[in-house]
Write a structure and sequence with these properties.
Radius of gyration: 19 Å
Largest sheet: 6 strands, mixed
Number of strands: 15
Helix content: 10-25%
Order of helices and strands: HEEEHEEEEEEEEEHEEEH
Strand order of the largest sheet: 3-2-1-6-5-4
Shape: elongated
Number of helices: 4
Strand content: 35-45%
């Protein structure tokens, strides 16, 4: 088992070195993200990499324990129109598995900008996102127990799932707003309103 884990880590490090070289050769400097949306390399098949719902990355069945490696891989993630998620470099595109969202929102700051509420989230891979029209929030009810799950648009078609602990803090900021003629329990950020659920439905759940 130890030998297998070591090989997986070495293989992941080799893949990371390839990604890093590709990024440096295409002008992703100064901490900027590689322009993966502009790359159109050939599809080279799927690799045994998975992002679990709790944000843990696995390669060949082994957790990737080195955060810099995870951060590097996260910078070349892309979700295409087919709904699948890929690692993309200028020379190849490989498919990976994502159990839920590729990122987790792990920290939230409640502030103001130009006198209006502004929510800012940090993801588990270091992205900082201000919620607003360009980075909207969406909410869905999922699972057999209808669990409320908030998602934040990060970039491209990639989203971050708000952790359950933060979800309670986020919902606590909600107020009833009229949206398209319907009373909706919603949160405001960046000059936009993001409905969570109909107020009547929330009232029914609270009874």
């Amino acid at each position: 088992m130890a030998a297998n884990e070591m090989k997986a880590q070495q293989d992941a490090a080799g893949l990371a070195a390839l990604v890093q070289r590709a990024a440096s050769e295409t002008g992703a400097k100064g901490g900027g993200l590689p322009p993966v949306e502009r790359w159109n390399p050939p599809f080279c098949g799927d690799i045994d990499m998975e992002i679990r719902a709790d944000g843990t990355w696995f390669y060949m069945g082994t957790p990737i324990g080195r955060k810099p490696l995870v951060r590097l891989f996260s910078t070349v993630l892309r979700r295409d129109e087919d709904g699948k998620t890929y690692l993309v470099t200028p020379v190849e595109k490989v498919g990976i598995r994502v159990e839920d969202a590729p990122f987790l929102a792990v920290e939230m700051h409640v502030g103001e900008k130009d006198g209006a509420p502004l929510l800012t989230f940090r993801t588990n891979v270091g992205d900082v996102v201000e919620v607003g029209p360009e980075h909207p929030l969406r909410f869905e009810m999922a699972g057999e127990d209808n669990q409320l799950k908030p998602y934040i648009h990060v970039r491209g078609r990639l989203e971050a799932l708000v952790t359950r602990a933060l979800m309670y803090d986020l919902v606590a900021l909600g107020e009833s707003e009229t949206v398209d003629g319907v009373e909706m329990f919603s949160v405001r950020s960046g000059g936009a309103v993001f409905p969570i659920m109909p107020t009547a439905e929330l009232d029914a759940l609270s009874q």
